[in-house]
């Protein structure tokens, strides 16, 4: 059963050119998404050899006319895009912010290193270097410490930030993001105390890191 994440009534691309498909108002109990309903329509199943096209609004789906059959028929192919998060992109300092006067009251994004492929389907960008690192350290709590160094993980690297003046908004626009933990886990280490006793110390270990939008802190230099 096909499902869709759009609102009921929204058009859904169909691999069968002789059917119109859309999101129904019926919800699939397993996925929690709306089911797809298709209705037949009068059409011509043949096509011109070697012809390619995409349905309106969906550049990730492409139909090719297969001339190996008689008569030629359409074959569907779908592009799967790699994982993409715009917060992980480095802003392009060589480009000016693109603002439209119709969006002055909105939060307009700063043009960055984001690019779309030739088909207009997948987006990519120059990724910021924010990654997990590890170092050996000795944990000391009071008069207790671990006898063998442990590997402690942390996040380090740069994320996209920029500050550019917008003539359209008549002010400087700021875009900030920081390198921080994305997922963590709880771990334990045994500490040995000066009196010979032991205790268990829990700590948070970083598993993955990523860039996350943050509030830009205003910095002002004091005059002497």
Structure, explained:
The protein has 224 residues and is an all-beta fold. It has three domains: 1-43, no CATH class; 45-78, no CATH class; 86-212, Cystine Knot Cytokines, subunit B (Ribbon). The protein is 0% helix and 46% strand. The chain is built from no helices and 16 strands. Strands 11, 12, 14, 15 and 16 form a five-stranded antiparallel beta sheet that branches. The protein has a four-stranded antiparallel beta sheet with strand order 1-4-3-2, with no helix packed on it. A three-stranded antiparallel beta sheet has the order 5-6-7, with no helix packed on it. Strand 15 and strand 16 form a beta hairpin. The relative contact order is 0.12.
List keywords for this structure.
single chain; 224 residues; mainly beta; Cystine Knot Cytokines, subunit B; 3 domains; 5-stranded antiparallel β-sheet; 4-stranded antiparallel β-sheet; 16 strands; 0% helix; elongated
Low-confidence stretches: 93-111
Number of domains: 3
As a percent range, the share of strand residues is over 45%
The percent of residues in helical segments reads under 10%
CATH superfamily of the largest domain: Cystine-knot cytokines
Please summarize the sheet with the most strands: 5 strands, antiparallel
Looking at the structure, the CATH topology of the largest domain is Cystine Knot Cytokines, subunit B
- Named at the architecture level, the CATH assignment of the largest domain is Ribbon
- What separation lies between the terminal Cα atoms? 71 Å
**Total of helices:** 0
Counted beta strands: 16
**SS class:** mainly beta
Which CATH C-level class of the largest domain is it? Mainly Beta
């Amino acid at each position: 059963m096909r499902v869709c994440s759009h609102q009921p009534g929204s058009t859904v691309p169909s691999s069968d050119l002789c059917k119109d498909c859309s999101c129904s108002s019926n919800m699939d109990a397993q996925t929690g998404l709306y089911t797809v309903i298709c209705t037949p329509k009068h059409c011509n199943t043949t096509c011109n050899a070697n012809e390619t096209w995409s349905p309106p609004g969906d550049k990730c789906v492409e139909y090719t006319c297969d001339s190996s059959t008689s008569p030629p028929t359409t074959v569907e192919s779908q592009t799967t895009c790699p994982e993409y998060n715009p917060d992980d992109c480095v802003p392009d300092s060589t480009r000016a912010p693109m603002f439209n006067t119709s969006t002055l009251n909105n939060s307009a994004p700063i043009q960055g290193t984001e690019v779309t492929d030739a088909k207009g389907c997948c987006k990519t960008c120059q990724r910021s270097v924010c990654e997990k690192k590890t170092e050996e350290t000795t944990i000391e709590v009071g008069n207790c410490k671990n006898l063998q160094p442990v590997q402690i993980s942390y996040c380090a690297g740069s994320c996209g930030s920029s500050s550019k003046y917008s003539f359209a908004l008549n002010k400087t626009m700021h875009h900030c993001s920081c390198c921080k933990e994305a997922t963590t886990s709880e771990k334990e280490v045994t500490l040995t105390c000066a009196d010979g006793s032991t205790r268990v110390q829990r700590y948070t270990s970083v598993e993955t890191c990523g860039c996350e939008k943050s509030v830009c802190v205003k910095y002002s230099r004091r005059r002497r």
